[in-house]
Amino acid sequence: MRLPQDIIIKPYITEKSNMEIGAGKYTFIVDVKSTKTEIKKAVEALFSVKVLQVNTMNFEGKVKRTGVHEGPRPAWKKAVVKIDTDPKPVEYLAKGGKTVTNNKKYKTSIEEFGVAQ
């Protein structure tokens, strides 16, 4: 099993990704072999947030030239993670018909991005 630090490589900061932070969407560069489930678990473990949705995109490496030599840049994967910005308590019925409320404390933003909601 891989560590969350091995799956999430770094945040992907662009003008578009900064605008999406207000909607609770954060963008990361992730390991090429990672799956959506692994990305979700890694973000929840690293940042203590509740992940609602993960969208991934694969990018092929471009061929670049240096003088007469040609070589490919490495392929990479981008993940857009939507977190729960308004966590609601979960109510369910326990044995005996009692209603139990589960108030898990999750963060509503990722402060490491430097943008507060």
Structure explained in plain terms:
One of its GO terms (biological process) is translation. The structure is a single chain. By secondary structure, the chain is α+β, with helices and mostly antiparallel strands. The protein has a single domain (4-107), classed as RRM (RNA recognition motif) domain (Alpha-Beta Plaits), CATH 3.30.70. Helices cover 19% and strands 37% of the residues. It contains 3 helices and 8 strands, in the order H-E-H-E-H-E-E-E-E-E-E. The strands form 3 sheets. The protein has a 4-stranded antiparallel β-sheet with strand order 1-2-6-3. A hairpin with a 5-residue loop joins strand 7 (90-93) and strand 8. The radius of gyration is 19 Å and the shape is elongated. The mean pLDDT is 88.
Count of the domains = 1
Reading the helices and strands in chain order gives: HEHEHEEEEEE
Mean pLDDT score, rounded?
A: 88
- Spatially, the strands of the biggest sheet line up as 1-2-6-3
3D shape: elongated
Largest sheet: 4 strands, antiparallel
Helix content: 10-25%
The name CATH uses for the topology is Alpha-Beta Plaits
GO molecular function, one term: structural constituent of ribosome
Pfam families: Ribosomal_L23
Keywords: Ribonucleoprotein, Ribosomal protein, RNA-binding, rRNA-binding
Protein name: Large ribosomal subunit protein uL23
